[in-house]
Every structure is written in C-alpha cells, then in structure tokens.
Specification:
heterodimer, A: alpha+beta, Ubiquitin-like (UB roll), Rossmann fold, 3 domains, seven-stranded mixed β-sheet, 16 helices, about 25% helix, elongated, disordered C terminus, B: alpha/beta, de novo design (two linked rop proteins), four-stranded parallel β-sheet, four-stranded mixed β-sheet
C-alpha cells in the first residue's frame, strides 16, 4: 500500500496517495480536476492549461495539477472564483477556433470539450471574427481519419506514437495557431496499435474510418468483455446497439483499463475481431450443407454418436474453461478421445513485446489446467480409426492441409459446433450453430496465467444456444455454466479454493504460490 | 554621458581579431581568474551586483550559486544570443566588434561554475555575427584560450556555436535548451529549473551575451569599479539601443540610473523638430509603454522601471512621437507575438490570434467598444496561464496601450479610419 498524505481540497481534508500528481491523487477520492492533455499512460505535458489549480500560500500560487505532486498539508483550491474563471477562460479559448460541429461528430456524447463546456464554461460565444480554418478528413493511415479543426493540440496522439509504440509517425508541425497534428508526407501511421489514438483523443479530431458515422455514442450499450484476438486477453468494451426493428449489432471494440493485462490499450487486429461477431454467422443447422431444423440436426448428431465406433472430440483453444470441462465430461460419457490440436492458431513470430501474442487463441492455457493434449501426435493417434470427429468450434482448416483434412473427412464423419460459417463448417456433414463469444459467458486463462471472466453482452433477436447447452443435448452431463464451474473447482487442483462466481474484475493471477497455498 | 566599459574596443579597427584585441587587454584577466578558487569568482561577481542583461535582471552571481553542490553530472553554460526582442540590438555589437570579450567572459563563467562545455545559442538571422563569432572562437582555439588546456592550465573548455532557426521563443531559456537538444523550440515547464535539470538533463546556467561580456571588466577592475557606475541596486553600465523617432538612433553604452528623457535628448539627439513626445517603450517591445508624464520621472534602472509598473527589459528604448498611431502599433505588436507563439499552451496559441483579429477589426472601423473591453479582458485571461511568459510579454504591453491610449482605440471605434494622429 502506497503512503498516504493528507491535504485540503477547497478547505476539506482528504487523504490521498502520495507521489501521484494532483489529478490522479485527488481524482481517486472522487474530485475531478478538468484536463485534456494529461493521460495516466502518457504522462503530463502541461499544454492544455485546463488543470490549473490554486495552491493557498503556494509559490507559485497557480500550478498545473498534472505537473504537481500531492504533498502533505497542501491547500488546493478548485472552487474559488479565480480558478472557475480560469477554467471558463481556457474553455472559451479552446472553443473559439473549434468548428462546434457536434451534430456530425462521432465523438459527440463522449467528448471532453462537450462535457467541460457544460460543466465549466456555459457562456455564449464572444467570437465575432473569423475562426482559423484547417484541414478536415485527413487520412492518417491505419484507419485513422483526422480533423484538424476539432483538434485541441493536446498531443496525446503524438506522445502515444513516441512513448508507447515508439514509431513516431505523428508530430505537431508549425507553431502558434498554425500548429497542426500531422504525419510526414507519405509516411502514414503504420503501427499495429494506431487506432488507440482514436480512444486517446479527448475530442473528435481522431476518428476511426471503420466506426465513423455508424452510430451515435449515446445509443451504444457499453458491455464489458475480453478480446479473443490472441492469448493476451485484453479487456474491452463491447459497444453494441439494437436499432429499432433490427438485431443487436456490435459496432466496435474499445480497450478497457486493466493494469494487470493490457493497461489502457489494445491492438488494431483485436479491435477488428468484432466483425466476426456480426458477419458470416452460422445461424441455422446444416446437414450435408443443407439448412435443417436445429432439433433434427441435434438428433442426427446424437444418432451418429450412438452409432460411432470411435469418436474424437476436438476442443478449440478459444473455448471457455467451462465449455472445455463440459466437452471433456461429454467425451467421457461416450468414450471419445479428446484432442486440442490447434497448431494453426499460432502464428510464430507475429507477437511483440507489448500486447500482441503469437498464439491467436484466447484460452490455450486452460488446456494445461484440464490436461487436454494438443499435440499433433496425440491428434493423429486419436483420429486413427475414428469414424466420427466432432469439432467444438476448432477450425481444423487452419491446422491441417486441405489434402489431409479431405482424407480425414473421407474416413470419418465430420461434425462441427460453431458460431461462424467458416471453412470447417462448410466441410462438416453436420453443423450446429452455437452462441458466439459475446453472446455467452465464461472464463479464460491468458498467456500470463491470469484468469478472467466475461458475461453475456449481446442478445440476438433469435439467440443461438450456448455450447454447453448443445453439448448437454447431445448427452453431456454438464447442463450449464454454473454446473461446469462447480465441477471445475472440485476437479481441478489449480482452481481449488477459487470461487469462479466471484472472480474480481481485474482477473486472478494463477500463480504457482497460490496453487501451493491452496493445496496446503 | 556615454561611458566605455563594454564598448571600450568597439571603435578600435580590427578589434575582433585576437592579436588586436590582446593588444588592448583581451584575455588579460585569465591569470587573475585561475589564481582564484571558482567559489571566489562567484562571490566576486555577486559583490559586483551584476544583473542579468537578458531582460529579467536576475543577479548573475546568485543564479550561478543555485547550481547543486557535489554533482556527478557535467555542468553546462548556455549563452543566450538569440536577441530577438523587437527594438533590441545590443548583443550583435559585441558579437561582431569584440567577440573575444565574450569568449573571455565565457572562460571566466565556466571556470566559476566548473563547466567544461559552453554553448552559444545565436539567432539564425545573425549570419554576419555568427561568422565573426566563429572566426573568433577558431582564433581562440588556435591561440590556446579554448580547448584541452586553457592558456596552458590544466583546465579544459569547449565552446560550441549553435544557430537557431528563427524563433523568438527560443530566447526563452528552456526553449533554447530544447532547440540545442535538437527538438522543437518549446519552453519546458518549471520546475525543474535549468540550474538543476537543464541541457541534456544536466545542471545548466543560461546567461545573456552582455552579462557574460561584462565579466572581464569586473574581474579586471574589481566589483567596486563596476559599482562605481549605475545605482545601488542597478550597478554598472548597459548597452542601450535607442530607436524610434529620434534624430540619432543607435547603440549607446550608458551607466544605469540616468533620466530617460535626458538620455533621449542628449544622447539620441532628441525628437525630430516640431514633434511632441507621445510615449516611450523603455526596454524592448514587451515592456509596458510610458506616457510623457511618466517618462518625466523615470530613470534607466531596474527599480525606477518597476516603480513605474514597467520593466527595464533589454534596454531597447523606442521613442514614439505624435505621428505614431498607437492602435496600429498594437496591431504590429500582437502580430509579432502571435506569429512567434510556440503553439504549446492553449491560451497563447488561440488567444493571441484572437486578439490580433480583434485589433484588425477595430482598425477596419468595424470594432465596437465591447471589442476594446474584450481585448482588455483577454489580456487578463491569457496572462500567466501559460508555461512561459511569451504571452505575458504580449498582454502586459498591449494592456498598457489599452489603458494609457484607450482614446485612440475609441476614436477608431467611433470615427472609422484614423484621424487622431498628426500624420
């Protein structure tokens, strides 16, 4: 626990963490100091001047809160007429050359300028001269579109490319009110985290080409989720909306703060994985490629299971811990072999030292917890002589060549439970739709052995059954997620003593010591 | 009235050449300096009462003593030769006519602050000056006054000339450091102050050219000889640049403390015949203007200027007679500071442009009384809300014209085009 200091805000004594700047320290106890340029991940720059606060008996008496550390006995003034006037004056100056085009701006509803105008400014415009005209809809590359007129020159985006990605594509060129955020000619944003500048931008200057003009932010339901783009498990917001007479659709993923996993950021590839939740979905059951009623298809698969001599259940590294457990139990009841073979999900060398991992699946670490073999040797042995292979959302076309998959399909019947009409669903003799990741709840263990959970975020007009339910219809003994969790804590040594219904929001680190502690 | 301490060698032909300069006393103080302890040099400069000649007038010796003791980092000296304040033209004389006086001063200063590297940041437009200065530095290296062992002593000192690229704000000491480091010239937030964390993160002293050039005289003749000139709190002499509507504009070395009107009359030849004094800018464009009545009692020293709510500044005196249109002067003034704002802080970046447009509107005859009031309020709203004092340089001076010559602004508002000047 960090040291505490006592200081006064507007004459009221508060206890805050020492060593932090005033924005963070006082913000932690619920008192807002308005700021545009400061961001905890990018440090203090001190250019917006919105966080100027008074320090009673201080030298100097007026300081930027972002650059001032909380100190014992400090008397911070936020509500004096002088400070309120400064906040109003700075807001006025921020807005004189701003286009105030909120009705057509994507940031509207989550814009600091809007919020601060309502809270700290509220005066009528005194601008009677022509504003500075600047460039609009500039393509900065990587799906980032820049509007210079909306920009407040806080340099968050510039600092992001310098401090976080260290690629430095952005800079502020020129000075005075000719200053503009820009790229070097012919050198667009070219890093795999570029879209974070859209989130970082406190105003509508940085917009995502993908999201632009799709939805007003206040219509979006912002549900919590975990990204499945790779094994990092970045925390995200799933922004979705059911428009009138339409289905619930996801419009974007945004990073959600988790200091232990992804901090404030996520990669662009992960951000775009929302598309597979919307598009190319497997919505109906297929028997030999033909649409069939779900009950009929389930019945067909039950029959196949009961008639088969040797069954192989192929688990996906994207399945949740609960799903894996339910599938394992099901496999045991029908005496099936289990494989987690999924080498195709790993792109060796693709990862970096920040967030992106080689392994493009979300839950491979759970294989180890449940003792699921994912080797090619194990897979080959399992499929040898098998006459029914059920893939649980494992797209085998990623891991096997077309020839070997065709050879496999010639020897045994392929069944597939999945949420997308991917190549494996097309190949399968029986394909059953199940709920996708954002429509289901579950537990994931990431590459750093941090256990995280997600809840149902999206509910479609015609919801697909979740996988555990479909597996139970096939004859599995686990009926739902809760049963699976109860079973998991009882059966898995590393999870003993962990209440899977009460996992903290920032996740649980499954460390060696924790496991041994529990055992003792 | 004129004296010749700093300008002693200015009129000697070829005094910029080392052999001529040495004949007339250059580098003569070094024996004395190296016989002293660095701390003694600092004490001596403190005793002389020398104040920084860049504009702020901070005591030079005191500034040096702010360096942290027992540091394991190198200490740097940065000589501010950005001289960009409008109406200021004193350092350029030193650079061209007596660069060895500056180099000698640098050696003294570096010895006192235990620095082995000095940078001279010179404004980009000073092409003649940079050539003269570099030639002098080359001569000093060749003669053994700079380099591995200075004048045969076990003391190393390198001097590097760094040319600016034409930004007024780089005369601000931390923007100057940023520029030397190769970054965009934008002032840094203080603290940390440069004496603690300056150039390349190391303790750095930044002094004006004239401050450094004053050191050889002080070392050669002692603090009392220096204090014999000027006033008690403003000792010494200053290179005053007198410009504007006088008969003999130019650079004059004068002791501090002289009455400003007397200097204008006797040194600069007085106003043109038949003209009346309308105002005096006492120390560069950023200092608040003085009315003729105020000028009656002002003397050229720091304390008198402060008492009249203006500043000594850089000693660039601009004399304004009754042909000057103060509104257009303010337009020109704001144009300059707007153009030179680094664009970092919101108030300065957005506000100065707004002020400029309002003044232009008033000049076009489209202004209202509310515009004059808004202009006055904007001065308050912008001033001291920024990282550096560039915006204050604009607002303090603009406010003085608005307060003291408001009737001229009102004439524009009520009467359209200018009719209030004698032109």
């Amino acid at each position: 626990m960090a040291d505490k200091v006592k200081l006064f805000v507007n004459g009221q004594e508060v206890e805050v963490e020492s060593g932090k700047n005033l924005i963070d320290a006082i913000g932690a106890v619920g008192i807002e100091i308005p700021h545009l340029c400061y961001h905890p991940a990018l440090g203090a720059d001190g250019n917006c001047r919105m966080c100027l606060v008074g320090i009673e008996d201080g030298r100097p008496p007026l300081v930027p809160a972002c650059k001032t550390r909380a100190a014992e006995g400090m008397k911070v003034q936020l509500d004096t007429d002088k400070i309120k006037k400064i906040q109003r004056d700075i807001m006025e100056l921020e807005l004189i050359n701003h286009p105030i085009d909120c009705p057509i701006c994507d940031q509207a509803g989550e814009c600091k300028l809007q919020d601060y105008y309502m809270k700290y400014d509220g005066q009528k415009s005194r601008m009677t001269v022509k504003p500075v005209l600047k460039a609009k809809k500039m393509d900065f590359g990587s799906g980032v579109v820049h509007d210079q007129e909306r920009c407040v020159l806080c340099a968050r985006c510039v600092r992001f490319t310098r401090l976080i990605t260290k690629t430095g594509e952005l800079g502020i060129v020129n000075r005075t009110d000719y200053a503009r955020v820009n790229i070097f000619p012919g050198r667009p944003l070219a890093n795999r985290y570029a879209l974070n500048v859209v989130d970082l931008c406190p105003v509508g200057a940085m917009t995502s080409a993908d999201f632009r003009f799709k939805q007003r932010s206040w219509f979006l339901t912002k549900s919590k989720g975990i990204c499945r783009g790779c094994s990092k498990g970045c925390n995200i917001f799933i922004d979705h909306n059911r428009e009138k007479y339409k289905d619930d659709v996801i419009y974007r993923f945004r990073p959600r703060l988790n200091e232990k996993v992804n901090g404030y950021f996520m990669c662009d590839a992960g951000r775009m994985t929302y598309k597979q939740e919307n598009d190319n979905r497997l919505t109906v059951a297929l028997l030999d490629g033909k649409e069939t009623g779900l009950n009929e298809a389930v019945e067909a698969l039950r029959r196949a299971v009961s008639q088969a001599k040797k069954i192989v259940c192929v688990i996906s590294p994207n399945n949740s811990l609960e799903q894996m457990f339910a599938i394992q139990k099901f496999a045991a009841t029908c005496n099936a072999a289990v494989s987690g073979y999924s080498d195709g999900y790993v792109k060796a060398g693709d990862g970096d030292d920040f967030l992106i991992q080689d392994d493009k699946s979300a839950n491979r670490a759970s294989f180890a917890l449940l003792g699921i073999d994912a080797s090619k040797v194990g897979f080959d042995a399992a499929v040898n002589g098998a006459d029914l292979l059920i893939s649980f959302q494992n797209d085998l076309t990623l891991s096997l060549t077309a020839d070997s998959l065709n050879a496999l399909a010639g020897n045994c019947k392929l069944a597939y439970l999945g949420s997308n009409m991917d190549a494996c669903a097309e190949k399968a003799a029986i394909a059953l739709p199940v709920a996708s990741a954002t429509e289901d709840a579950g537990t994931l263990v990431n590459v750093d052995s941090i256990l995280q959970q997600y809840a149902v975020a999206v509910v479609k007009n015609t919801p697909a059954f979740d996988m555990i339910h479909v597996v139970s219809q096939l004859g599995g003994e686990v009926k739902n997620c809760f049963e699976a969790r109860a079973g998991l804590t009882a059966a898995v040594a590393a999870l003993k003593g962990i209440d899977l219904e009460q996992v903290p929001g920032e996740g649980l680190a499954l460390t060696v010591s924790e496991v041994t502690n529990v055992a003792a | 009235m004129q004296v010749k301490l700093l300008s002693a060698r200015f009129d000697i032909p070829d005094a910029h050449k080392i052999e001529v300069a040495k004949e007339h006393g250059a580098y003569a103080t070094l024996d004395k300096v190296f016989a002293m302890q660095p701390e003694e040099v600092i004490e001596l400069v403190k005793a002389s009462g020398l104040r920084g000649r860049g504009g702020a007038g901070f005591p030079t010796g005191l500034k040096w003593s702010f360096l942290p003791k027992n540091i394991d980092k190198p200490v740097y000296l940065a000589v501010n030769s950005d001289e960009s304040e409008p109406a200021t033209f004193k350092d350029r004389y030193i650079l061209v006519r007596d660069p060895h006086m500056l180099i000698e001063g640098i050696i003294i200063c570096c010895y006192a602050i235990k620095s082995q590297a000095a940078y001279i940041y010179i404004r980009g437009e000073y092409t003649t000056q940079v050539k003269a200065l570099q030639a002098a530095i080359d001569e000093a290296y060749a003669a053994g006054y700079l380099g591995e062992s200075i004048a045969g002593r076990d003391y190393k000192l390198d001097v590097t000339v760094h040319r600016g690229a034409g930004a007024y704000v780089c005369g601000e000491e931390t923007a100057l450091l940023e520029s030397i480091e190769g970054r965009k010239g934008q002032p840094r937030s203080k603290p940390p102050f440069p004496a603690v964390e300056g150039l390349y993160g190391c303790p750095t002293i930044i002094n004006n050219v004239q401050s450094i050039a004053s050191l050889p005289f002080i070392l050669a003749n002692g603090p009392d000889a220096y204090k014999a000139y000027g006033t008690e709190k403003s000792p010494g002499t200053h290179l005053f640049g007198i410009s504007g509507l006088v008969k003999k504009p130019g650079m004059y070395e004068l002791p501090l403390g002289l009455p400003i009107l007397e200097v204008i009359d006797k040194v600069a030849g007085g106003l043109r015949d038949g003209r009346k004094l309308k105002g005096v800018i006492p120390g560069g464009s950023s200092t608040p203007v003085l009315t003729p009545e105020e000028a009656q009692t002002v003397t050229l020293d720091y304390e008198s200027m402060a008492a009249h709510k203006t500043m000594f500044g850089s000693g660039g005196i601009v004399v304004l007679d009754d042909t000057v249109d103060m509104v257009k002067l303010v337009e020109n003034l704001i144009y300059f500071y707007h153009h030179e704002s680094c664009g970092q802080c919101t108030p300065c970046r957005e506000g100065l442009g707004w002020m400029l447009k309002i003044v232009k509107k008033i000049i076009r005859g489209e202004g209202t009384t509310a515009d004059i009031d808004l202009l006055t309020e904007l001065c308050d709203n912008i001033e001291m809300k920024t990282v550096c004092v560039l915006s204050a340089a604009c607002t303090m001076s603009t406010r003085s014209y608005l307060n003291k010559f408001r009737h001229e602004f009102e004439a524009y508002v009520s009467g359209g085009a200018s009719s209030q000047t004698a032109m």
